Amino acid sequence: MPERADYNGVARTDLTTQACDMCRKRKVKCLLPSPENAALSSRCQRCERLNILCTFNSPSKPRGPKRRTEANARSQEPPPDVRYRTDDLCNRGLFKILMQDYLDRLYPLVPIVHRPSFREALRKDQDCEDEGFYAVTLGIAALVVATLASNFSVYKSHAQPLQLSSRKEFVHSCYKKAVLMRSWSYFDQLNFQKFAVSYLFSAAFLQLGDQNWSRMLSVEAMQIARLLKMHLITNYEGLNCIETQLRKKGFWLVFYIYV
């Protein structure tokens, strides 16, 4: 079987596992000595051709995403004199970790937010002022704790751990907070955020095995989706691209509940 070559026609087996200092500085491929010169020189082909010293003194950098350490987690924590609406659930730093765990691990399954704007809103602590966004973050926190059962011990062992003793208690506390913000006219003006809140809590209760709460909230989400006419593509006219994509994803999330 012939060797697979890259776009420059260089066989993969001719590449070094680590580029020499000169090739790394120039950001070019570092090639092993040709077979006829391998016994005479240990320099790479480029250094051999230029007749310069071939060294490997530069330290190699680890690849992949940066690992989240306890120091990184602590760096997210606010000054001790700042109070947040979620402090009776968990410390602000841990709350941000819950949000990040959703984006990293659960978003592909429940893509119910626009990630760039969601991250920006979190950075600005928008949940402190926007009750709709606050309710969404409560739903996300509930979903993360309910779904990532193996992580619950990690959340409980955080420097300032969850205030609740069980996953069920945490989810119910989040839901109670979200419901207490509803006024008598809550369903008079519907939007995608309200659909997202109902769906997130429905999914969270489903992960806990609480079928009654899950079914009640899934019906609520279904009704909001119907009233928003998320099933009618013609009703998307005039919406911005973000809202359009969110509603399309929301429709399919509801659709899969009943399929």
TrEMBL record:
Its main location: nucleus. The chain crosses the membrane at residues 133-155. One of its GO terms (molecular function) is zinc ion binding. Residues 59-82 are annotated as: Disordered. It is found in: Nucleus. The keyword Protein biosynthesis does not apply. It comes from the Eukaryota. GO terms for cellular component: nucleus. Keywords: DNA-binding, Membrane, Metal-binding, Nucleus, Transcription, Transcription regulation, Transmembrane, Transmembrane helix. Residues 19-56 form the Zn(2)-C6 fungal-type domain. One of its GO terms (biological process) is DNA-templated transcription. Pfam families: Fungal_trans, Zn_clus. This is Beta-glucosidase. It comes from Penicillium hetheringtonii. The lineage of its organism: Eukaryota, Fungi, Dikarya, Ascomycota, Pezizomycotina.
